[in-house]
Amino acid sequence: MTSLAWAYSLIGVVIGSFLNVCVDRLPESGSLVSPPSHCPQCKRRLTVLELIPIFSYIFLRGRCRSCGEKISARILAVELGTGLMFLLIWIRFGQSWDTVLVSIIGSLLLVIGLIDLEHQKILNILIYPAIGFGLLLIPLTHIATPWSFLAGGALGFAVLFVIAVLSPGAMGMGDVKLTIFLGIIVGYPEIIIVLFLAFVSGGLIAGILLAFKKVKRKDTVAFGPYLALAGMITILYGDQILGWWLRRIG
């Protein structure tokens, strides 16, 4: 592992701290810059040392230094997770523009997935610009095969839209929009991998939650996090997964 890879992972940790701010404030239509980071309970502004990713959480033992309010473990998990994601992106794409683009896409998917997990909604303020960004990338990075990426978006839309129409409540329109974005990004046939991984992982986790009575059969379970995770796996390893599958059926 090169020093550049670890350095890029550290950048991911720092960006993860900002992504936590996005997850906290965007659902409430709050500003990302004002007010400065503070304790949600006692409203005290955090010091510079308290803003250091990972180490501040460990040093403070997961609690506010002033009022003792518990800091969400999600803060630490996102910082570590973003650092790991950036490391995997660097290992996969190295020192290239693809690394930058995939890092942006991965960060966006992380925020979308977490907000859906916590608030059961996929924000239009995120997904519409994401779709626009994906469409802009097609002529810039896929000039030789633009139709396969448009086809990916169309197929993703068609599958989830049909489910949303035939089974109201089983799938939200936010999930449909997210799948359009993922289809545009990964293209066809890779969008099939995204859908397969999302449905399998979502069904497996839902089954586990039902078995342990964490949710009831009529409860709504966010599907966005599974789509986001499946999309990121496909971006990183879709070629290898598709190649393995073709060899298996060949």
Protein topology:
Elements: H1 3-25, H2 55-59, H3 73-93, H4 97-119, H5 124-141, H6 146-166, H7 173-186, H8 190-211, H9 224-249
Helix pairs in contact: 1-3, 1-4, 3-4, 4-9, 5-7, 6-7, 6-8, 7-8, 7-9, 8-9
Kindly summarize this structure in a few lines:
The protein has 250 residues and is mainly alpha-helical. The chain has two domains: 1-95, no CATH class; 96-250.
Structural class: mainly alpha
Mean pLDDT: 91
Number of strands: 0
Beta percentage is under 5%
SSE order: HHHHHHHHH
Categorize the overall geometry. globular
What can you tell me about this protein's structure?
- With about 250 residues, the chain is mostly helical.
- The relative contact order is 0.10.
- Helix 6 runs antiparallel to helix 7 and helix 8 (about 190-210) packs across helix 9 (about 225-250).
- The chain contains nine helices and no strands.
- Helix content is about 70%, strand content about 0%.
- The protein folds into two domains: about 1-95, no CATH class; about 95-250.
Task: Give descriptors for this structure.
2 domains; globular; about 250 residues; 9 helices; mainly alpha
